[in-house]
Design brief:
The complex is a heterodimer of chains A (114) and B (119).
Chain A: E1 5-7, E2 10-13, E3 19-24, E4 31-38, E5 42-50, E6 53-56, E7 65-71, E8 74-79, E9 88-95, E10 104-105, E11 109-113
Parallel strand pairs in A: 2-11
Antiparallel strand pairs in A: 1-3, 3-8, 4-5, 4-9, 5-6, 7-8, 9-10, 9-11
Chain B: E1 4-5, E2 10-14, E3 19-21, E4 24-25, E5 32-39, E6 46-52, E7 60-61, E8 64-69, E9 74-79, E10 88-96, E11 108-109, E12 113-118
Parallel strand pairs in B: 2-12
Antiparallel strand pairs in B: 1-4, 3-9, 5-6, 5-10, 7-8, 8-9, 10-11, 10-12
Classes of the chains: A mainly beta (114), B mainly beta (119).
Chain lengths: 114, 119
């Protein structure tokens, strides 16, 4: 079975540009999460969806960040305009409502904003 | 207050020795799950083991076991017979609201422990 698929794997952009990160969760999973990982702050939960509905976006750092999940198989995280402090690895993860509920992570999108 | 505390930023261990990675957590939710993930230098997040707050027995998965001490709010990961391939960052995480019926939260991660296995 395919795991969580993220694109692009690497993105280098200039400050002020729009960045869109994409995620395809594992089929049948009803939760989708966006995390950001930096050396300084570790792994931070930005937003998560349940059955395509945003449940908690309190981790989204500011209005420059937005996330959508138009259907069960696709989600985007958009940064507009991007800033150098947004440089990080962004992970998408999905899970199924189950007893264990472990999250399955994509390989991450490494973003560098110059 | 931090929800997940990992007090060992880094550890060096000889190959074939057992390793204990510490994790303490803080929650008032009676329904939670505790997870350990491994992140090798390649960057992917690999799920290792899970312990539910209502589980009576400590979880085990191959060479991994979780020493769950609920009263102390402790969930240490034990790796038996360490191997060179175990060198990685290890993250403890908690997910609240697991069995409440209202939907679970996302995982809250600790800062991680960088484990280096020496030959």
């Amino acid at each position: 079975d395919a795991g969580v698929i993220q694109s692009p794997r690497h993105e280098v952009t200039e400050m002020g540009q729009e960045v869109t990160l994409r995620c395809k969760p594992i089929s049948g999973h009803d939760y989708l999460f966006w995390y950001r990982q930096t050396m300084m702050r570790g792994l931070e939960l930005l937003i998560y969806f349940n059955n395509n509905v945003p449940i908690d976006d309190s981790g989204m750092p500011e209005d420059r960040f937005s996330a959508k999940m138009p259907n069960a198989s696709f989600s985007t995280l958009k940064i507009q305009p991007s800033e150098p402090r947004d440089s990080a690895v962004y992970f998408c993860a999905s899970s199924f409502t189950s007893y264990t509920g472990e999250l399955f992570f994509g390989e991450g999108s490494r973003l560098t904003v110059l | 207050a931090q929800k997940i505390t990992q007090t060992q930023p880094g550890m060096f261990v000889q190959e074939k020795e057992a390793v204990t990675l510490d994790c303490t957590y803080d929650t008032s939710d009676p329904s939670y799950g505790l997870f350990w993930y491994k992140q090798p230098s390649s960057g992917e997040m690999i799920f290792l083991i899970y312990q539910g707050s209502y589980d009576q027995q400590n979880a085990t998965e191959g060479r991994y076991s979780l020493n769950f001490q609920k009263a102390r709010k402790s969930a240490n990961l034990v790796i038996s017979a360490s191997q060179l391939g175990d060198s990685a960052m290890y993250f403890c995480a908690m997910r609240e609201g697991m069995y409440s019926g209202g939907g679970a939260d996302g995982l809250t991660f600790g800062k991680g422990t960088h484990l280096i296995i020496q030959p």
